[in-house]
Structure formats: structure tokens, C-alpha cells
Design goal:
Helix content: 55-70%
Oligomer: single chain
Largest sheet: 4 strands, mixed
Strand order of the largest sheet: 4-3-5-6
Strand content: under 5%
Shape: globular
Number of strands: 6
Number of helices: 26
Length: about 625
């Protein structure tokens, strides 16, 4: 509990400048605080990298920013909060405390991110290349500016906790922020607290409960997950806040959050924009307001991508050669429908793989046509059709994959606004018949039994493909009907009943999730031995270590050192990194002991088996 309080206190301190910046702009919501708080973190780290200072100098810069913002904010009239926040925060805190107990050891991609956070906390003279994992390697195209790693490093330094504890448990502290940001986005879009709760329940059912073990939220401290679960809802809340209020402060927040998304996980900035394109097309009368928020979003994203372009161009999965494209198609083939290497699409069952809430929410997408004149209907129907068209049309998806890589292109389906379709569709159904409320519980039980979801990396049990095609074809039909049939009276939406139906539907999913409420992995099967961990304390910071790739990967997470090689799947496949060539070199060294290999990469320490020794020059 003490660790939780220390993490929570440090997180609040790091985001506090964002709270002051939001007030200076006349805003008072969670989304503005997060977006502007990360903007302050970006400025602080930009100064650190410019003058080659340390994490503590960055915190000093953050403090000076805070003082300046306080002097400005104190003169601004207070604005009221959105009603309903206390209950949302309470739910988020309780769920965060529950997440604390399912946090397992840091493994997989988490070790890569932990290594970067550790370097930012412990190394002096920091610059952008300080966080590289490989000796003589290059910048990672997805994390060239380590904004999210820098946020976690600030939290680690202020809390006094080890970087490993921060990466392992920060998800519990971020949980209330994620709940509040999504609730704000839904409230701005629907104008209803009941509908906002229904959206939040849909998100929790799909991403927290369905998979068990804390679901995606257990990984909320990692860049990819925080971008989808926290930063994307923040972006939507700020966009919808602008559309509802026309306060220019929201445009500042929109610019900040999309720039941050482009640095934390670049492709996700584009993925969040896709459903907003569909929305804008269906709301032509708001073209001025739409153009304003698109301009605010596209400028920072464009600047970030222009800066990243030289690094991205070195990545072999970007505009891949035939051999790389074929390798990717083989790797993800069970998630695709392939005709040839230039003609393929996502499997329809892949889109509905993630359990009962996703299946039902996808089923309800065409019902948004009943509310096409309302903002939520335009967002759900327009946004869903844009993404479904991108992933299901085989003439479009390969070109999209060439731009963002097939590995990333698969993930765009996760940005279909299913929680919004879930909430809005239930409200529409309740307007047709009140029997929807009890039927929702029956449907939740039935779908949870029939389609509990497949959350493994290698898809073995796809969801119902017919539901995906129903959403695409039925959604297109609903869109056409909405334009052809002009109703003088809109459909009735019973949002309070819809919220109750959402709760009843999610109930069996939540019960199944809590039955499996345990760490997904209790131990790391490849963890370093205690003797080796103790021995590694003598390795100086910034040393170069050669070892087998799996051992190297964990050494970098434990000590701020550089590696000769790491597992290729966890290394950016750039020419500078040359992950597969390094892998072969290390395998040759392990087999022969050839001293030329460590010498080539400047290695001064080596690990063979569980023995650490220093290499002679």
C-alpha cells in the first residue's frame, strides 16, 4: 500500500503542471490535465537532451514550468467540472487497487521499455541515443523521443522506487485516469451520464474483464497500451470538448495530445484520426469546427512524422522488399485472408476475436444509423466504416500495411469505436422495446459462453466472421438509408435504460474475468539467477555486455548497459541495429569463443551460462 501511495503521489506531481496549464486555458477536466501535463514533460526532457543533463535536472525544469503556469493560472476564473466525476474516479481507484494484485513479473516487451526507463533514471549526460539498447545501434523509429519512458522515469525518481516497480505497478495508478478520460469523451459525445457509463462499461468489459488477469489494463504502463487505453480517449475527449463548447483551449489540448501520440506510439496517432475522418464526412455542416481540430491534430503529427521519417525509412518493414513482406505474411497469416503478397486483408473473424462485448458491440454498429443526425451516430457509423473498409478491402489493406507495417496495420481494428457502438446501440434498442434490458443479461451470458475470446498472440479461435460482415454491409446500408429516408421525428433513445442494459450485459463478462483474476504469469521462466543478478551489480553503467540474446535482454532491464545483441523480435529491424546479423554473431561467439566478435562491438563484459567475467582489451 505504501508503494501504491508513493506511485500515486509521484504521478500527481508529474501531471500537476498540466492541471495548471489546463486552468490557464480555462479548462478543468482529466483529458486536458493529461494532455498538457505530458506536454510539460516533453519540454522538460527536450531541455535535458539538449544540455545533456540528468533526470533531476529535468524535474527542476518541470518545477520551473509549474511556477510559471501557477502565476498565469491564478488569474483565470475557475470553470466547473463535468458532473459525475467522483463516482468515476472511485471506480477507477478500486479497479486500480485490484490491478495491483494481478501485476506479474515484467516480461516480453516490458523488459525493452524497462531498460529505457532505467537508463533515463540512472545515467548522466543524457541524450536521445542514451536509451538505445544496442552498442553502436540506432534510434528506434517508434520511440525515437522517449516521451512515455521519460514520464515513467520522472515518476520513478520522485517516488524513490526502482524502475522495475514503476513499470510493474504504474498501471494501477493510471487506471483512474483511463476511466475518467473515456467517461469524459463519452459524456461530451452523448451528452448523457448514463450513456457515458455504458461506454465505460463496454471498454472495461472488452479490455479489462474479457481476457482475465487484468486484460490490457495490466499492461497500461507500456507505451502501446497507454496510447490506446488512455491517450486515445484523451484525444477524443478533447476533440468532442471542442465540438461541444468551441473553447479554443481545447484546440491547444488537441495539438498537444496528437503530438504526444505521434511520439509515444506514432501509428496510433493516425489510427485515432481515421474514425474522426468518418465523423467529419458525415457532419459537413460543422466543417469549420472539424477543420479546426483536424488542423490542430495534423500539424504536430506531421512535424513528428517528418522528424521520424529518416529513421522509419531505415526500417525494413516499411515499404518492405518481397522477402520481408513474405516473412510478415507467414508470421501473421492466421489473422489474414491472403490471395497473394499484394492482395490480402484482415480475417473478418480476427476483428471479433476479443470476446462477448466486442462481438455484441460490432453487431450494434448498424444501429447507429438510427441516430445519424446525432454526433454519436456519425462517429460510430462513419468511424467504423472507415476502419472496416481499410482492413477488409484487399486493394486498400496491403497499401496501408506498406505504409505503417503489417505488424501495426493489424492493430487498427482495435480503434473501431466499439464501446460507443455498444452504448448507443443499446440505447436505440431500448427505445424500440424495454425488453432489451432483461434480454441484455441473457445475451451477455450466452455470448460469454459461446465467444469468450482468444487473446493469445497466435490466433487459434477467431470470432464470428458473419458479425464483422454484418457490421460492414449493414452499416453501409444504414448509412444509405439515413441519407435516403428523412425522418421528421428521430428515433427515441432511452439512455438510462441503455446504461442499465450495458451493466447487465457486462456482468457475466466481469464475473468470468474475476474468476481468472490472477497474474497472467507468476514467474519469468527465463529470469536471471540470483547469483548472476548479484554479480551484475559490479558492471559499471554504460558498459557493453555480450551474452546470449535472452540473457542480454534481461541484463539491460536490470542494469543501464548496452548490448551486443538482443532477441530480434524485440529490436527495431533497422540497418543500424541489424538484429539478425548481431544474433548470428553472438551465436558464433557462444559456439566458438571467437574473441573477434566482442571486440567488433566494443564489449567489455561477458556472460556465459550464469558466469559473469570481464573481457581483456
Amino acid at each position: 500500500m505504501i508503494e501504491y501511495l508513493r506511485l500515486a503521489f509521484a504521478t500527481c506531481i508529474v501531471l500537476f503542471p498540466g492541471r495548471l496549464a489546463a486552468r490557464a486555458l480555462g479548462l478543468r477536466d482529466t483529458a486536458s490535465t493529461v494532455a498538457l501535463g505530458l506536454a510539460c514533460v516533453f519540454v522538460a526532457w527536450a531541455v535535458v537532451f539538449t544540455v545533456h543533463a540528468t533526470v533531476w535536472f529535468g524535474l527542476l525544469v518541470l518545477f520551473l514550468i509549474c511556477v510559471g503556469l501557477f502565476l498565469v493560472a491564478r488569474r483565470v476564473r475557475r470553470v466547473p467540472r463535468i458532473a459525475g466525476h467522483p463516482a468515476v474516479w472511485l471506480v477507477g481507484i478500486v479497479l486500480g487497487l485490484l490491478l495491483w494484485h494481478v501485476a506479474g513479473p515484467v516480461t516480453g516487451d516490458g523488459l525493452f521499455h524497462l531498460a529505457r526507463v532505467r537508463k533515463l533514471v540512472e545515467l548522466p549526460g543524457l541524450h536521445l541515443r542514451s536509451v538505445d539498447e544496442l552498442a553502436g545501434g540506432g534510434l528506434h523509429p517508434g520511440y525515437a523521443f522517449p516521451l512515455w519512458h521519460g514520464f515513467l522515469a520522472f515518476v520513478a525518481a520522485l517516488s524513490g522506487l526502482d524502475s522495475g516497480s514503476v513499470v510493474k505497478h504504474e498501471a494501477a495508478v493510471l487506471m483512474p485516469l483511463a476511466c475518467a478520460a473515456l467517461w469524459e469523451a463519452a459524456f461530451r459525445l452523448f451528452g448523457s451520464r448514463s450513456a457515458a457509463w455504458a461506454v465505460l462499461l463496454g471498454q472495461l468489459g472488452a479490455l479489462l474483464f474479457a481476457a482475465g488477469h487484468g486484460g490490457s489494463f495490466a499492461l497500461l504502463a507500456l507505451p502501446a497500451t497507454v496510447s490506446r487505453v488512455l491517450l486515445a480517449p484523451v484525444a477524443l475527449a478533447l476533440v468532442f470538448g471542442w465540438l461541444e463548447t468551441r473553447r479554443r483551449g481545447y484546440l491547444v489540448g488537441v495539438a498537444a495530445i496528437f503530438g504526444e501520440l505521434a511520439l509515444v506510439h506514432p501509428t496510433y496517432a493516425l489510427f485515432v484520426l481515421l474514425p474522426l475522418v468518418g465523423y467529419a464526412v458525415l457532419r459537413p455542416r460543422e466543417w469549420r469546427a472539424n477543420a479546426a481540430f483536424f488542423g490542430a491534430a495534423i500539424v504536430p503529427v506531421g512535424l513528428a512524422l517528418a522528424w521520424l521519417k529518416p529513421i522509419v525509412d531505415e526500417t525494413l518493414s516499411h515499404n518492405p522488399a518481397p522477402a520481408e513482406r513474405l516473412a510478415e505474411l507467414l508470421r501473421y497469416g492466421n489473422q489474414l485472408q491472403v490471395w497473394n503478397d499484394h492482395h490480402y486483408r484482415m480475417g473478418a473473424g480476427t476483428i471479433t476475436r476479443a470476446g462477448a462485448v466486442v462481438v455484441f458491440g460490432t453487431l450494434l454498429i448498424p444501429f447507429a444509423g438510427a441516430a445519424l443526425r446525432r454526433r454519436w451516430g456519425a462517429f460510430v457509423l462513419g468511424g467504423s466504416l472507415v476502419i472496416l473498409g481499410t482492413v477488409l478491402i484487399p486493394e486498400i489493406f496491403p497499401r496501408f500495411a506498406d505504409v505503417v507495417s503489417l505488424s501495426q496495420a493489424r492493430r487498427v481494428a482495435g480503434f473501431i469505436p466499439i464501446p460507443f457502438a455498444f452504448a448507443g446501440g443499446l440505447a436505440v434498442l431500448c427505445g424500440f422495446t424495454r425488453a432489451t434490458v432483461p434480454a441484455a443479461l441473457v445475451a451477455g451470458v450466452g455470448l460469454q459462453i459461446a465467444y469468450p475470446g482468444d487473446f493469445n498472440y497466435n490466433l487459434a479461435h477467431p470470432g464470428p466472421a458473419v458479425i464483422t460482415w454484418w457490421a460492414a454491409v449493414g452499416g453501409a446500408g444504414a448509412l444509405a438509408a439515413g441519407f435516403l429516408v428523412r425522418r421528421h421525428r428521430p428515433f427515441i433513445e432511452r439512455r438510462w435504460s441503455g446504461g442499465l442494459a450495458a451493466a447487465l450485459f457486462v456482468l457475466p463478462v466481469a464475473v468470468a474475468g474475476f474468476i481468472h483474476w490472477s497474474p497472467f504469469q507468476r514467474t519469468d521462466p527465463d529470469a536471471l539467477s540470483p547469483a548472476l543478478v548479484a554479480a551484475l551489480r559490479q558492471v559499471p553503467a554504460q558498459a557493453v555486455v555480450i551474452a546470449d540474446p535472452q540473457t542480454s535482454y534481461r541484463i539491460a532491464a536490470l542494469r543501464p548497459v548496452y548490448l551486443v545483441a538482443a532477441p530480434p523480435v524485440h529490436v527495431a529491424n533497422t540497418r543500424a541495429n541489424n538484429p539478425y546479423g548481431r544474433f548470428r554473431d553472438v551465436q558464433h561467439w557462444l559456439a566458438t569463443g571467437d574473441p573477434a566478435v566482442p571486440k567488433r562491438y566494443g564489449a567489455t563484459w561477458a556472460v556465459r551460462g550464469s558466469r559473469l567475467y570481464r573481457l581483456t582489451p
